[in-house]
Specification:
By secondary structure, the chain is of the alpha/beta class. It is 40% helix and 12% strand.
């Protein structure tokens, strides 16, 4: 209905994974109704905002990498991965952060914190008080004058441009020509002392349709 009323604009939802069973129930509902969003955005537990209660931003939600791998696998397991796009956010600040997110199943990424820092945010944690000292999150004219649009525009543009370029360089160094070629075998992670594993070994990809009734085990 939202898609129809908006003239065909993409419609999706965002969530931070808590109980895995709840997301699996969402997948079951999508399959049963044969109705799918255009995208799902996964926010990692390490994400957050200065307006959030500290206990929530510090302690609630599954970390991004684990959540992203789980959601990608869940959608694959129910045979609906190709029905929608997967977005993710959670301290994505560099080209490598984009690389590892795509390796774990994301189609695209969102960067809030990185863009905010480029804009001039100093993480004063006063987003909800209208007293942001840098003018980023306030309507108070006294503080707003600290946000010099002409200067900050260039800074945000440069951060975005250089971050994307560093991602493309990483992709090229792996011998890849397109982001669709990135998978979990392309990223390594030290898990203990001298033990290094690929993301495929840490977060094994499950077979398509294996979570459907009568699917492959």
């Amino acid at each position: 209905r939202l898609r129809r009323l908006s003239g065909g604009k993409p419609v999706g939802f965002k969530l931070c994974i808590g109980r895995k069973s709840e997301f699996l129930s969402l997948c079951k509902a999508m399959v049963k109704l044969d109705s799918y969003p255009d995208f799902i955005s996964i926010d990692g537990g390490e994400g957050g905002t200065g307006a959030a209660p500290p206990e929530f931003s510090n302690s609630v939600g599954m970390p991004l990498l684990d959540a992203l791998a789980f959601v990608d696998n869940a959608l694959r397991g129910f045979g609906i991965r190709e029905k929608l796009k997967l977005n993710c956010s959670g301290k994505i600040l560099s080209g490598f952060h984009i690389m590892r997110a795509l390796a774990l199943g994301a189609d695209f990424c969102s960067s809030a914190r990185g863009m905010m820092l480029a804009l001039g945010c100093i993480q004063a944690l006063e987003c909800n008080k209208n007293t942001c000292p840098t003018g980023v999150a306030t309507q108070d004219p006294y503080f707003m004058k600290g946000l010099v649009v002409g200067d900050k525009t260039d800074r945000v543009y440069s951060f975005h441009k250089n971050t994307v370029e560093s991602f493309v360089e990483l992709m090229g160094s792996a011998g890849l020509e397109h982001p669709d070629q990135i998978n979990r075998t392309h990223v390594y992670r030290r898990v203990f002392m001298n033990l290094v594993k690929t993301y495929e070994e840490i977060y094994p990809t499950i077979p398509k349709g294996c979570l459907l009734e009568g699917g492959d085990s």
